[in-house]
Design goal:
By secondary structure, the chain is an all-alpha fold. The chain has one domain. It is built from 8 helices and 2 strands, in the order αααααααβαβ. It has helices at residues 8-18, 28-41, 67-88, 94-106, 126-137, 142-149, 164-176, 190-195; strands at 185-186, 201-202. The chain has a two-stranded parallel sheet with strand order 1-2. The protein is globular, with a radius of gyration of 15 Å. The N and C termini lie far apart (33 Å). It binds fe (ii) ion (2 copies). One fe (ii) ion binds next to helix 5. One fe (ii) ion is lined by residues 107-108, 126-127, 151-152.
């Protein structure tokens, strides 16, 4: 199943409607660059595919239809909560908080590579695929791609997180990928809300 966003003129707006988290970035330039990168970099399946094919590491929303979209929103919400601690501890700057927000929104845009078919498993190197794409096709601060590249942490074969920013994006992904906890989602789109009327909403 695909759900292509058509009409270039409205595409940018459509992405922002589906991921209103983009508007929460403080830096306007980074906000626009993140929206553009997401629009160019995401695949059609992003809006409909599950985030995982098993319930081993994900809550029920993320393993069903639209799970990847919902998971991405949960990662953003988890980051938004955890980042307060890192800021208070002086481990991150406010600029890095914005870069982390961008990384969360972009981290799984290549989850299944270029194509998803029902039952597919996530590409094992989707972290590296997304980072390579960001480096090749966007002008985003390199710290965004670096955090995306290391979001899987010590699992799989990819590089491990080193800086506090990379660590936090990884921890937000872990928090949102917990079987026994369901992070709320910020302003869920009607397509999500109608499918999952009881989904918890995040407020910031
Ligand atoms: Fe991932
Ligand atoms: Fe993820």
């Amino acid at each position: 199943m695909t759900e292509t966003i058509r009409c270039e003129e409205n595409a940018f707006t459509a992405v922002c409607e589906r991921l209103p988290e983009i508007a929460l970035l403080d830096n306007q330039e980074l906000m626009r660059a993140t929206a553009a990168a997401f629009f160019e970099g995401h695949e059609d399946y992003f809006w409909t595919a599950p985030a995982a094919s098993s319930y081993a590491h994900h809550n029920l929303y993320c393993c069903a239809e639209r799970g990847l979209w919902i998971h991405t929103k949960m990662v953003f919400a988890a980051f938004e909560r955890l980042v307060d601690s890192y800021l208070e501890q002086g481990l991150l700057t406010e600029t890095e908080r914005d870069l982390g927000r961008a990384a969360c929104l972009l981290h799984d845009v290549k989850k299944y590579g270029e194509m998803y078919e029902e039952g597919d498993h996530a590409d094992r190197d989707h972290d590296v695929q997304a980072a390579d794409w960001l480096r090749a096709e966007t002008e985003l601060d390199s710290r965004v791609a670096d955090a995306v590249e290391r979001h899987m942490g010590p699992w799989y074969n990819g590089p491990e997180p080193e800086t506090p920013l990379q660590q936090l994006v990884h921890l937000a992904d872990m928090t949102a990928s917990t079987k026994n906890a369901t992070v709320g989602v910020f302003q869920p789109h009607e397509k999500i809300r109608s499918q999952y009327p009881s989904i918890a909403e995040a407020t910031f």
